[in-house]
Amino acid sequence: MNSQTNLQQELSIIYRFFETRIARYIFLVIDNEPLARQLIRRIQLELNTHGKEIGHLKLKENENSIYSQVEHFLAEDHYNGLLVSDLDLLIYKNSRETLSKLNKARDAFEKFKLPIGFIVNHDNLKKIIRIASDFYQMRDLPDFHFTGTEEEGKTFLDIDNSKLELYPDENLKIDFLEEQLQLREKEQKQDKHSLDHIIIPLLKIYVNKRYSRKAEELYGRYIKARENQVKDKISLGDYHSLLNHFDKALEYFREALKTTERIGDKNGISILFKRIGLVYQLKAEYNNALEYYQKALEIDKEMNNIEGEALTLHETGRIFEAQGEYVQALDRLQKALDIYKKIDKSKEKASVLSHIGYIYYLKGRYEQALEYYQKALAIREKVLDKDDLDLAASYNNISLIYKSIGRYEEALEYQQKAMNIREKVLHEDHPELAASYNNLAMLYVNMGQFEKALPYQQKALKIREKVLNRIHPYVALSYNNLAMIYLSMNQLDKALECQLIAIDIREKILNAEHPDLAYSLSNLSLIYQARREFDLALKYQQKALDIREKVLGEDNPDLAISYHIVSTIYRDLGQVEKALEYAQNAVKNFKKIFPRGHPHLDEALENLEDIKNVFFTKAQG
Questions:
Q1: Which partner from 100, 104, 351, 541 sits 20 to 30 angstroms from 245, CA to CA?
Q2: What percent of the chain has pLDDT over 90?
Q3: Are 396 and 415 in contact (CB under 8 A)?
Q4: pLDDT at position 50
Q5: Domains of the chain listed by start with CATH number
C-alpha cells in the first residue's frame, strides 16, 4: 500500500467480499498488532454503517474444539461475516496436526455459510502455505497485506470520526480512538493541536460515561496548556462540569451560547440552555436552573423537538423533587416517561423510572419505589456495561429500599456493588462516590456498627465540602448524618454541633416546610432528649411534626417516627396520657407501612406497652 488510493481500493474489495455472504475466506496479513486491531474495528465500523454486522472471533487454545468455539460464538448473535484472529493457535510444529486443525476450522466455518477474514502475520502465513497448501488455495481472493510502516499506519488512521456516531457500541468507540491516539502520538509527538479530531470525541465519550479519571488525564495531557485554543467550548464545558468545576463550565457554555445565538441555531441554543441549567442544578441554585430549563422547553416546543422536551421535563422534575414539590415533580417525570416510551429511549426511560422511584422512596412508599427501581435496573442491566455508573445508581437505590425495610444484609450487598463500580470509574473526589460512602455509613448505623459508620461519613463530608458549595443540600445531609452517628456513639457535643450546621444550611436553601428541614429538626430533638433537655427536645420535635403533618401523608414513616419521638419525650417528662396518645398514633401509622418484625414497628410496640404499664399502674395507684 503506497497511497491512500490503494488503501481505499483494497478496503473496498474487502467490504464487498463481506457483503456478498459467499461462504469462502480471505487472508488479511499484518504483523503490527495494534494496527491489526484498528483494521478489525475499521471493517466492523464501515460495514455496520451499511447494516452489515461483522463478528470478531478470537480463537482460544485448549478451550473446546474449533467447531465448538465457532458454534458457541455464532449462537450469540446473527452476523453477516466473521473476522478471525489468533489463527496461530492452530499452527503446530507437527505438520499433520496443523493440517488437521486447519481443516476442522474450515469445516466449522463453511457449515455456517459465512464469509471469513483470517487475520495472520507473515510468518504464520508462510507456514500455512507450506503445511496446508490445499487450505490456503481455497481462499476466495489474493491476500491483503498491511505492513504497518509509519507511513502506511498514518494513512490507515485517516478515519472519518463522524462514522463513530453511527456505531452503537461506545466501548468500541473508546478502543478505536484510544488506539488511534496511541499511534498518532508516535508520529506527531509535539503537535498536540493536530490531535483534536481524536481527543475531543474521546473526551466527549469519557464525559458521557462519567469516566472522570480518564477525562482528567486526557485533559491534563493534551488540552490544559492550550485550553483557549480549543474551538469546541461545549466539550470543555462538559469536562469542567464532570469534575465539578462549575464556574469554569458556565464560562465555556456562555461563550458557546454567544456564538450559537449569533448564527441563530435554535437547536444549539436549546442544548446550551439545558447545559447551563444543569450546572445551576448541580450547584443547587434551583431558581436559576429552572429559568434556563424553561427557556429550553419553549424552544423545544416551538421546534417540535420532543426528545429535547422530554429531557427538560425530566430535569425540571428532578429540581421540583429536590425542592420537596413532589406533586409537580411526578407530573413532569411522568410526562417525560410517556415521551421516552413513544420514541423508545431505553437509557432515558430507565433514568426517569429511577427518579419516580426516588420520589416514592422519599414519600415512604417503599413497595412502589422498589417496583420502579427494579424496572430501571432491568433495563440498565440489559443495555449498559457492567461498570456503568447508572448501573451503580440502581444498585444504590435498591440498597436504600432494603435498608428502609430492615433487610440490611441485602442492602449491604447492593451498596457494595454500587461502591465497587464508583471507586473503579470515578475520581476519588467525585460526589457520586461520596453518596456511596454516605449510604454505606448510614447502613452501618442501622446495623448498630457505629465505628464502621463514622469514617465513611467523614469521607463523604470531606469530598462534598471540597467539590460542592459550602451551602449545598448534600453538605447539609452529611452534617445531619454525622450528627446522628455521634449521637449513637453518645458524643453529644459533637452531635449537637454538626446538627446545628446542617439546620443552618437547610434553612438558607430550603423552604420552611421542606421535609429535609423537618428531618434535621427531628434529629436535633433527639440530641436534646439525649442531653435530658426535654423542653427543647419537645419544641423541635413538635416543629418537625407540624411540617410532616402538613406535607406528608399518613402512610409516611417519618410522620410515624415523629409521633413515636414525641411520645417518648412526654414519657420522659412524666406526662403519661399525652405519651400514650402519641404512642398509639405511632403504632397505628407504622402498622400501615411495615410488616411485623420491622425494627421501627417493634420499637413503637415496645414503647406503647411500657407506657400502658405506667398508665395502668398510675390509674390503680
A1: 351
A2: 34
A3: yes
A4: 67
A5: 4-147 (3.40.50.300), 170-185+195-279 (1.25.40), 510-621 (1.25.40.10)
